[in-house]
Amino acid sequence: MTQPRIRTPLGKIEGLGSARSGTHHFWALRVSSVALIPLSIWFVASALAYVGAEQGAVAAYFAEPINAVLMFLFIITCAYHSSLGLQTVIEDYIHQEGTKITLLIFNRFACWIVGAAAGYALIRMAFGAH
Fold first, then answer.
1. pLDDT tens per residue, range 44-86
2. Is 6 helix (H, G, I), strand (E, B) or coil?
3. Euclidean distance between the first and final Cα of the chain, in Å?
4. pLDDT digits (tens, 9 = 90+) for 28-46
5. Computed over its alpha carbons, how large is the radius of gyration of the chain?
6. Where in the chain are the domains?
7. How far, in Å, CA of 23 to CA of 27, rounded?
8. Is the dihedral of CA 79, 73, 34, 20 positive or negative?
9. Under DSSP, is residue 7 helix (H, G, I), strand (E, B) or coil?
10. Helix and strand tally (H, E) in the chain?
């Protein structure tokens, strides 16, 4: 026996159902924002501590494993969170399907390219390649 489907009146008329990704997107955005709280506090404290410092001092700071790992987590979490947030804005406010799909692809690509470039720069700095 099949279970009866619960649908909204609008869903019955249009024949559309859930895309089944809304809950995952909601929780991913919330979890990444909670993870960014301590990471952002650490980042701001680190940045303020090294205002005006020479490049060698900053490179030495990121050569320490704990600082390199925290910065890497900050970069990846920021890239992921910004990608999810901008995806929501695009889906909510862009109504032409072709433009929406193009912007969603560009959003994901741009966020991960920026994250990868920042991660690469961090790795070069952490391992002493100037």
1. 999 999 999 998 899 899 999 999 999 999 999 999 999 999 9
2. coil
3. 67
4. 999 999 999 999 999 999 9
5. 21
6. 42-130
7. 6
8. positive
9. coil
10. 5, 0
